[in-house]
Amino acid sequence: MNYLIEGNRAKILNDAGFINEDIPELLNGLISPDFEKKQNVYRTIRLLAESKDIYLSSIYEFYKEKGKGKYLDITVPAMNLRVMSYEMARAVFSSAIENGVGAFIFEIARTEIGYTDQMPIEYVGSVLLAALKEGYKGYIFIQGDHFQVNRKKFFASEEEKNKEINTLKELIHTAIEAGFYQIDIDASTLVIIEKQTVAEQQYLNSKYTAEFTNLIRNIEPITVSTGGEIGEIGGKNSTVEELRAYLDEFNKFMPEGKIGISKVSIQTGTTHGGVVLPDGNIARVKIDFDTLKTLSKVAREEYGLAGAVQHGASTLPKEVFDKFPEAGTAEIHLATEFQNIIMDHDALPSELKEEIVSVVKNNFKNQWKEGMSEQQFIYKNRKRAAGILKHKFYALDESIKKELRASLKERFTFLFKQLNVVNTKNIINMNITKKYTIIDR
């Protein structure tokens, strides 16, 4: 062992030995099904990261500056790591180091935590371990994406509603404890479009976003950057009227003196994973950049928020990404394309590709909706194989992993350049002043 742990302090005794010998062992412990082992390894990784000036933090202060009209041409990428998170994060950090990038977020959604078999401490540990491997130093932002209220359960009965709300509250506690200092609350599932006024339609959305935000404020060790959402991604495009109604009601529900949300996710024409055609290809989607620009401006100038957030963007055509900074987009969420790079890669063994298809067909037949072609069904549901086959992905030969990382790095570099986050490391360091360490506990 090439490191030493003494209480809340860690020291790496031999850098080369640690990288070559200890990191693989720590990764194996982190993805182990043994929860106690996973917890101990997570704590060790966290201490080792802090010893190398790698800190989990909140992007709240930077977003506060964006709310004042600064850095409007920077769109922060928030990247969901579903498959081989450690390897994906290595590719992110490698590109970030070469391009001086500091404004980026790693995230995972509530549903992804389940089907990728990555509880919060495993996800955070994987990212920190990747930072140690690549030699990244500085602030790291981890986000809970789509911490969403299940509509069916919420409206089923009072008992089911309370159970659902409490489950989400427990997840928030667990996530913050693990180092998620960004949380996106999605109560847009509770919008009742049949109500007469827009304020009435958004009422439950505003109410429960405020309730969860207030909970976060009461337990956070540092100011967590929180977000809300006004329209289910994949539905009709959002409007200024909906944004104002949602935020006005939200502000009424928030206790006086408590910090509210930093940003709002809106719908501009995308859908998660892209629109899949019967042959399995992705349809070209037209983004409503006018809506994105207008709602970002209103959110910023009238409510002091960083702006609007774009979801479901990773499968969009390459030529549109530079338009997001032009529209003043605060943040953009990217997921499916990274998964696709791995699952479709020429270097991925054909046996594993076939096993992905087999897992989907054998375990998720209930997701095969009427009218879906086989290609559509497999494409939309192969993400669900990520957790079941997690250990097989990690067991791939290093030569294969190297090719996968190279392709991922190329994509991350492209996105960093298009979203104008190259050379933002110093900007982040200037604006982020707070970190929360294990030593602070």
Structure description:
This protein is of the alpha/beta class. The protein is 51% helix and 12% strand. The chain contains 19 helices and eleven strands. The strands form two sheets. Strands 4-5-6-7-8-9-10-11 form an eight-stranded parallel barrel, surrounded by seven helices. The protein has a two-stranded antiparallel sheet with strand order 1-2. Helix 1 (15-30) packs antiparallel against helix 6, helix 4 crosses helix 6 and helix 10 (240-253) packs parallel to helix 11. The longest helix has 22 residues, at 198-219. It is globular, with a radius of gyration of 21 Å. The model has no long low-confidence stretch (mean pLDDT 92).
Low-confidence stretches: none
Q: Structurally, how many domains make up the residues?
A: 1
Please identify the top-level CATH class.
Alpha Beta
Q: How are strands sequenced across the largest beta sheet?
A: 4-5-6-7-8-9-10-11
Going by helix content, strand content and strand pairing, the class is alpha/beta
- Major pleated sheet: 8 strands, parallel, barrel
CATH topology: TIM Barrel
Beta-strand proportion: 5-15%
Distance between the termini: 26 Å
Secondary structure tally, helices: 19
What is the global morphology? globular
